[in-house]
Amino acid sequence: MLSFEVHRQLADLIASVNRLTTAAADRAPAEEIALLADVAEANATDLASATGAELGNLMRHIWWIRKNHRAGRPEASDGDIADLRERDLIVAIDAVTAWSATFLSSALVEAVEGSWRAEQYDAAVRDAFVHLERRMRDLAAVEPREGLTGRRLVNRLLPTNGGAGHLGDQGLLGHLTDGEQGGARDLLNGAVSLFRNASAHRQTAYSRAEAEDVIHLVNLCLRLMDKYRRPDNGADPSHATADGSSPSSPSSTS
Question: What is the dihedral of CA 142, 144, 150, 154, to 10 degrees?
Answer without folding.
Answer: 10
